[in-house]
Write a structure and sequence with these properties.
It is built from seven helices and three strands. With about 180 residues, the chain is mainly alpha-helical. The protein has two domains: about 50 residues; about 100 residues, Orthogonal Bundle (Arc Repressor Mutant, subunit A), CATH 1.10.10.10. Strands 1-3-2 form a three-stranded antiparallel β-sheet. It is globular, with a radius of gyration of 20 Å. It starts with 8 loop residues before the first helix and ends in a 10-residue tail after the last helix.
């Protein structure tokens, strides 16, 4: 891992942005810094989470699919439902399930309710991997130990407002 930079490149980019476009409202600079910070934090967190999960032979996207199956009533879900719940394209679901199946963590079965559909079914090994991986992620607070519980709640609410404004989900709906 390279040594940390001696300056904040996002803050520097905002300064350059303000010099290049001096007539913009201050909110524009704040927005640029916030978006760029979120994107960088995402990169950092995915790298950390994937490193934590590597000993289990999975990535974070595969972990999410396993946990979704663990939480399902029968340990099985249609691939289309997995994509809907994880909010990813069908191609991504197919890739994730292909890899989990190759590792013996899930198996595919025909969907008895839909003759054309396929279910992903978690295996006993998949449940064991999900359990161990969850213990590791919980112990590491999912890579978020730099923030207090209060800060995490505030961050969630802030990002939830962005998601609601983007119609990511119905804000008044219940889980």
């Amino acid at each position: 891992m390279p040594p940390p930079l001696g300056f904040d490149p996002i803050d520097r980019a905002a300064q350059l942005w303000a010099e290049r476009w001096p007539d913009e409202e201050p909110d524009v600079y704040a927005s640029m810094r916030a978006v760029t910070s979120i994107m960088r934090a995402h990169q950092i967190l995915i790298a950390q989470l994937d490193a934590m999960l590597r000993p289990h032979g999975i990535t974070f996207s595969r972990y999410e699919a396993l946990v979704l199956l663990v939480h399902s009533r029968a340990g099985a879900l249609p691939l289309s439902k997995i994509g809907e719940r994880l909010q990813v394209h069908a191609t991504s679901v197919t890739n994730v399930i292909d890899r989990l199946e190759a590792a013996g963590l899930v198996r595919r079965e025909p969907n008895p309710r839909d003759g054309r559909g396929t279910l992903a079914v978690i295996t006993a090994e998949g449940r064991a991997v999900a359990e161990k991986a969850t213990a590791d992620l919980n112990a590491a607070r999912f890579g978020m130990s730099a923030l207090s519980a209060q800060e995490l709640r505030g961050l969630f609410e802030t990002l939830r407002a962005v998601r609601v404004a983007a119609a990511d989900f119905a804000a008044d709906s219940q889980a």
